[in-house]
Amino acid sequence: MRIPLSWIREYTQFPADGTAEDLMAELVRVGLEEEEVHTNGLSGPIVVGEVLEKTPEPQSNGKTINWCQVRVVAKGHTQTLTGDGIDPSGVQGVVCGADNFEVGDKVVVTLPGSVLPGDFRIAARKTYGHVSAGMIASVKELGIGEDHDGILVLGTLGLDPEPGTDALELLGLSDSAAEINVTPDRGYAFSIRGVAREYSHATGTDFTDPAHQVTPLQDGSPGHPVVLNDDAPIYGIPGCDTFVARSVTGVDASAPTPPWMAARLRLAGIRPISLAVDISNYVMWELGQPLHFYDAEKLNGPIQVRRSAPGEKLTTLDDKQRALNTEDLVIADDRGAIGLAGVMGGASTEVSEATSTVLIEAAHFDPISVSRTRRRHKLPSEAAKRNERGVDPLLPTTAAQRAVDLLVQLAGGTDTGEVTHVGDPITPETIALDPSLPERIVGVPYGAQQVTEALTAVGCAIQAQDNGMLSVTPPSWRPDLTIPESLVEEIARLVGYDTIPSRLPVAPAGRGLTEAQQRRRTVFTGLAAAGFTEVLTYPFYSVEANQLFGRANGAEELPMVRLANPIASQFPTLRTTLLPGILDSLRRNVSRGFTDVALFEAGSVFRPDGKMGSEEIPGLGFYPGDDVIEELRAGIPHQPLHLAVAVSGQEPVDNVGGPGRARDWADAVEAARKVAQLLGVELDVLQGEHQAFHPGRTAQLQLKGELVGYAGELHPKVAEQQDLPARTSVMELDLGTLIAAATGQTIAEPISTFPPTTQDVALIVDEAVTAGELRQTLTEGAGDLLESVELFDVYSGEGIGEGKKSMAFALRFRAADRTLTAEEASAARSDAVALTGERHGALQRG
After folding, report:
1. For residue range 644-703, what is the model confidence (pLDDT) as tens digits?
2. Buried/exposed code over 622-634 (b: 16+ C-beta within 10 A; e: otherwise)
3. 21 known member of a binding site
4. What is the pLDDT of residues 677-688, one digit of tens each?
5. 388 is annotated as contributing to ligand binding
6. 480 is in an annotated binding site
7. Which residue in 35, 250, 381, 389 is deepest, having the highest Cβ count within 10 Å?
8. Domain 46-170: what homologous superfamily?
């Protein structure tokens, strides 16, 4: 929203020497963000001149120029300006290429030293055999129009100023504007009226409401008939609750827009078009009420406000034919739609230079209806911007009268004295406010008097109740004030955000993170401490990526959630696994030279297991019922929490200059064990198979016999296809299952003060027997004295036999109450070896 300073001064006590920066600094205090400053880009001596002589001089190039003598001071006075090229007599010699002016005309002269838009600097220079000391300006050169070939003759604007008059002041070009950002909930600030009120709040100065400067006609005769006929309101709210129509006859629609009005509109960011259009825009900017003007002679029958008929079309003012939707609210006459209500008018009833009778529309429309129409037709407009944020429902009568007054004053029209007013405005409802609520929410000890003063300044009507509560009726221009909390926000804003203390609230007893949240945080912190970096990736995958990583060898077809409106055609489904996303992050890091990478990601995956979605979405504004809620929940896919890691390159060295160790599948398995250790659960690591993993370097992760994930090295072909390092290793776990299995706090076992006894054993088994299986059997057979068992060697080849392998384990024994003897340790070792022989046919290697 741009605010010309001369305009805001009419309704506030903004200082005459105040700048746009000063205005924005004050408005920031009440929550209106500053954007930038706008000017007309003109400076220096730009004055009114009277043409004394005009001598045509044909040139050899076929062009004719005019050598002119122009008086730039009042008759009988001498020039007070000094500078290179300025004649002290007050008569300047100027070369001009245009020919649409005559001797005696008053024109705008840019004297040497002045600057025009685009940093075009004027100086005395020799051209066409003369020294041209200045320039007679066109509207385009002054930045106030598009006509470059014609000189601006002030008489065409109805102006006859004295030579030497400051043309910038005369044409309103010395003004500047402050631009602010208006949030969607504060539509009232899309007007000079609203911003002026906010300035008064920020500074404590007086505010003159421009709406109070207008005296609406109350007892006019019936005007053009209007019928409100909305038979399909959205959420039961009528599309139009108030419609005011006024008529002005004898309008000279070709009359020029006054320079002061055109200048303000340009600074506000609106291009002047014609007097009628400019007046409607001026009133909208001033009061915040969008208007629409109709050529009354082009209307056929009464105006109707209704929903569009099936198949109905409309050509809007931008000359585009639009196929209307039956939900669109339209303005119509007996021939059909003549405008999109609250968005844009139609071309068939547009005001033109031939218009003599103007019908003014000032109406209050439902914001939801306007917003949907605007979005449906991709038709942004200043009117829609205000209507969809909420306009003062009591303003149409005043705004229509303001437009009538301007048409009478500037276009020579005559007020017919007719008034059409249909409908009843919907005003804000009264809110019950506990005076202590602002202090409880904000933490500032607002007293009852301060609460009352702040809300009264906003425009609220307040009445104290016997029970101590306040009945607060918001002003008609604040549709956003609907609940007590919104009133609290206004109190905090007006009293000052700087008064709010910077302290954290004390959490109520018994609150905080849930056990599941604490465990998730423990896992994430532990992985970060182990050298992993967390990443967050998009959940949108290709079908192929989900199929490759989301199911193991031989698994049946993987069900997926398909998106109705994917962000890209190649990513039409939601993820069923985290691996494609984290591998994409790893690939991006490696491609930028970060080859030593260890990443982890936690997030939901989407596993549909039945019905998807619901037959219909319930409407807004009411509770749909428990059955409908249950149906909606039943249509949501299962979303287990997964955790994935990806590693490549080398791990950091312990000492500077020391050798690094290449990361491999063991790091991925160790990450899974780290997660299990942090949660206090026991993972079983078994030989596994997965189509995306290396056939000999894949671990299957189980929890109490249930498959919860995979870890290992990527299949070489997959790594090559994905443009990943050759020895990339990954792991993915169902973290939600592990968290659910965690029983609570991990209890550390006491450390024995007695020494351990270590014995090694090498067992020959079939190639199909895994180290995990053999380790589990040794643990079970050795009994309670066994403290740990670790695999330290695997051998196959000469001396072992075809289809066999040797695995060597270190078994550490310890007793809690005594020093073990060698015989006790050997007996436990023998029991463990015997059990491996029974279960796996293991033979002890000599």
Report:
1. 999 999 887 666 666 678 899 999 999 999 999 999 898 988 888 999 999 889 999 999
2. eeeeeeeeebeee
3. no
4. 999 898 988 888
5. no
6. yes
7. 389
8. Nucleic acid-binding proteins (2.40.50.140)
